[in-house]
Specification:
alpha/beta, 2 domains, three-stranded antiparallel β-sheet, 14 strands, binds pyridoxal-5'-phosphate
Length: 481
């Protein structure tokens, strides 16, 4: 934290002021119980009107700045050849350095195009860690994913500053034993989402690229969470201390063959793009943009959003702005650690992650502990988080469960959205829930879709634990909401 308090207290400080607000509702616990039951104990299926603090995701729900909103008013509305698009293209070239740009409506749309072009039956895509949609797009095209995360990455508690690093020994061994003929690309995910928003070090980015070059394998950067990763490099890596965020971005990005991102995160708006180094590779993907997304100068995005992303990309190069998410998350994580709540450490980007296995040691993976915990938290607080554990996995082809290595409840902090007292409320309710954790039981599916089941699947509690929790809440909080 750059600003010290006279009291010595370590507080994250908002480096912005609020000028437009949205009213929130906190409905009574009896109504929250009805809402979560109707949602099949799946927080994706809750209606937003029933949610108090929406910590489901940081995707597409970050607060926009005055400059972003102003830019939307001057968007050049044209199907083809919009000036807005050319500004966006130039901004990407300037910041990420790759020359050929393909717009797409969000991150998974970029993944669709990349994987349709590069992945065929039997291919293997090595990566530091998968993201749900990135893995599904590889498998739907007949490929599989191999995760080569550094061992430290899967330890819930660690003091390693770069838990998202790819294990280069494992990668080289894989190239040697498997060969590279069926390796269409190596995917590197900045700010690794599913292990708690954990960053990759500057050296690891560079050494991964160097190793792939040695074996002549294409490199793809998923830059959706790059802004958090940049902040962590700047603040955790001594060698980066005197470099600007812009220079670090160039240093990381300039050697990748392909970079894609979800502008629902990187860019503080809604959209996405694929940036390509080599014209030949760009031409392979180009025709799929009008086929799936829209003409090459909007790619499924509204021109207003494209204007906002262009401004948002510049804001992502401002250390004061990109420090906000990580600093508020660090505060939340530290407060929970002080209260002995099991959380992923060190604090990462995008959100605070509760360790559901540690929180609910009496539940096994088959009980979907992260799903149970996130439902219980909604019930007692109106805070909506996201299950990131076994429920978010896909079953094996033989129908058996894939038990997630980590059972996490993600409490995302959309950038520039929540105030400190709202974060304190969430902490207070989590601490209460931990004291009453023995009341929480497991969940089971009664409606389970075959693909991306965490989005639409419906579950029920294994016994009547929600009633018990509600009763205890009423005893302790009386008529408080
Ligand atoms: C690392 C990462 N890659 C890809 C995506 C997919 O992006 P989108 O949600 O815009 O489709 C996400 C979204 O959360 C993400 O976090």
């Amino acid at each position: 934290m750059k600003i010290k308090m006279f009291s010595g207290e370590k507080l994250p400080l908002e480096m912005h002021k609020v000028r437009i607000v949205q009213k929130l509702n906190l409905i009574p616990i009896e109504e929250r119980k009805k809402a979560i039951e109707e949602a099949g104990f799946n927080t994706f299926l809750l209606r937003n009107r029933d949610v108090f603090l929406d910590m489901l995701t940081d995707s597409g729900v970050n607060a926009m700045s005055d400059n972003q909103l102003a830019s939307m008013m001057i968007a050049d509305d044209a199907y083809a050849g919009s000036e807005t698009y050319y500004k966006f293209e130039e901004k990407l070239r300037e910041i990420l350095t790759l020359q050929y740009i393909l717009p797409a409506h969000q991150g998974r749309a970029c993944e669709n195009i990349i994987n349709q072009v590069y992945v065929k039956q039997g291919d293997i895509v090595p990566m530091n860690f998968h993201f749900t949609t990135s893995k599904s797009h590889v498998t739907i095209n007949g490929g599989s994913v191999i995760e080569l995360l550094t061992e430290e990455g899967l330890k819930v508690n660690s003091d390693h500053p770069f838990k998202g690093n790819l294990d280069l020994v494992k990668l080289e061994n894989f190239f040697k034993s498997n060969g590279t003929a069926n390796v269409p690309y190596v995917r590197v995910e900045a700010g690794t989402n599913l292990i708690g928003g954990q960053p990759i070090s500057l050296d690891n980015f560079k050494n991964t690229i160097a190793l792939c070059k040695k074996y002549n394998v294409r490199t793809v950067l998923d830059a959706s969470l790059l802004q958090d990763n940049l902040y962590f490099i700047k603040t955790r890596d001594e060698s980066a201390k005197n470099k600007t965020i812009r220079d670090l971005t160039k240093e990381i990005c300039s050697e990748f063959d392909i970079i894609y991102f979800s502008a629902r995160k990187f860019g503080f708006a809604r959209g996405g793009a694929i940036c390509v180094k080599d014209e030949k590779e760009y031409l392979k993907m180009k025709t799929l943009v009008p086929l799936y997304e829209g003409f090459l100068t909007y790619g499924g995005m509204s021109v207003r959003e494209i204007e906002a992303i262009t401004v948002g990309l510049d804001e992502s190069m401002d250390e004061d702005i990109i420090s906000q998410g990580p600093q508020f998350i660090e505060y939340m994580v530290n407060e929970l650690v002080k209260a002995n709540i099991p959380v992923v450490t060190p604090a990462g980007g995008l959100g605070c992650h509760l360790n559901a296995k540690g929180f609910l040691p009496h539940l096994g993976s088959k009980d979907y502990p992260a799903g149970a915990l996130v439902s219980a938290l909604y019930l007692i607080s109106g805070v909506r988080g996201m299950e990131r554990g076994t429920l978010s996995e896909q079953r094996n082809p033989d129908g058996s469960e894939v038990y997630a290595e980590m059972e996490l409840v993600r409490l995302a902090l959309p950038r520039r959205v929540f105030t400190l007292s709202q974060i304190k409320y969430a902490i207070d309710r989590i601490v209460w829930l931990h004291k009453n954790k023995d009341l929480i039981g497991g969940l089971e599916f009664y409606d389970e879709p075959a693909i991306l089941r965490f989005f639409f699947g419906r579950l029920k509690p294994v016994n009547n634990w929600p009633e018990k929790l509600l009763k205890k809440f009423k005893e302790d909080f009386k008529d408080s909401l």
